[in-house]
């Protein structure tokens, strides 16, 4: 009898593990869908009003995914990225609500799993800290930005995103020689599986920044 109960318990545990794995795979499939849609909106949609409209719909999708997986960092990260992108398109004081919400999402993601998506929450949060105005308007903090972005690069020394945002921070700080070195490294990043549009768009941004640096150094 005890042997049978043990066998039943093992079967139940095994089935639960299968169910959890399936749920995790489904969640990550949804995250990959957000990534793909985001790249298409950011890099292949050129009308700003259309971008905001599409990003708003995508933010709603990301919010639903995040709320249905409250203990997973990945949906929170992408919800925050989408809100940050919308804020960048909208600009002005009206974007502060989005960036403050995104900041909270990245912070929550770091508490859940700082290694999620190769530490992307560090990258995204660091980018916000140097892009957002400081007090009393916003929460911007260049020192905090550098701390987070360096952490991101340490975790992923060959990541195109980590290197790009750290390079952009250095440009913002007028540290052009350092920025050039970091961005040149970013260009050498290996292509990411199923991120062709995002990689192409990011490389264009890097080339644009390198052109700006060249003008500044000459």
What is the strand and helix layout of this fold?
Blueprint: H1 2-44, H2 48-68, H3 73-90, H4 96-112, H5 120-131, H6 142-155, H7 160-172, H8 176-187, H9 196-217
Helix pairs in contact: 1-2, 1-3, 2-3, 3-4, 3-5, 4-5, 5-6, 5-7, 6-7, 7-8, 7-9, 8-9
Structural commentary:
This protein is mainly α. Helices cover 79% and strands 0% of the residues. The radius of gyration is 20 Å and the shape is globular. Helix 7 (160-172) packs antiparallel against helix 8, helix 7 (160-172) runs parallel beside helix 9 and helix 8 (176-187) runs antiparallel to helix 9 (196-217). It starts with a helix and ends with a helix. The protein has a single domain, classed as Tetratricopeptide repeat domain (Serine Threonine Protein Phosphatase 5, Tetratricopeptide repeat). The protein contains 9 helices and no strands. Mean pLDDT is 90; it is low at 13-20.
Number of helices: 9
Counting helices, strands and paired strands, the structural category is: mainly alpha
* The CATH homologous superfamily: Tetratricopeptide repeat domain
Number of domains: 1
Shape: globular
CATH architecture: Alpha Horseshoe
Salient structural properties:
single chain, mainly alpha, Serine Threonine Protein Phosphatase 5, Tetratricopeptide repeat, 218 residues
Brief rundown of the structure:
This protein is mostly helical.
């Amino acid at each position: 009898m005890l042997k049978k109960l043990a066998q039943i318990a093992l079967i139940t545990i095994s089935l639960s593990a299968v169910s959890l794995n399936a749920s995790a795979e489904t969640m990550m499939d949804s995250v990959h869908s957000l990534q793909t849609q985001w790249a298409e909106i950011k890099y292949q949609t050129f009308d700003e009003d259309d971008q905001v409209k599409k990003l708003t719909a995508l933010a709603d999708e990301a919010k639903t995914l995040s709320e249905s997986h409250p203990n997973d960092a990945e949906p929170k990260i992408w919800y925050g990225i989408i809100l940050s992108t919308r804020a960048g398109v909208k600009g002005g004081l009206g974007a502060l609500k989005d960036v403050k919400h995104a900041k909270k999402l990245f912070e929550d993601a770091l508490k859940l799993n700082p290694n999620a998506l190769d530490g992307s929450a560090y990258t995204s949060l660091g980018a916000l800290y140097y892009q957002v105005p400081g007090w009393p308007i916003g929460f911007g903090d260049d020192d905090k930005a550098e701390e987070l972005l360096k952490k991101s690069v340490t975790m992923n020394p060959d990541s195109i995103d980590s290197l790009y945002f750290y390079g952009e921070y250095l440009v913002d700080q007028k540290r052009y020689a350092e920025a050039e070195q970091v961005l040149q490294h970013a260009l050498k990043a290996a292509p990411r599986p199923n991120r062709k549009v995002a990689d192409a768009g990011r490389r264009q941004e890097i080339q644009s920044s390198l052109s700006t640096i060249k003008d500044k150094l000459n």
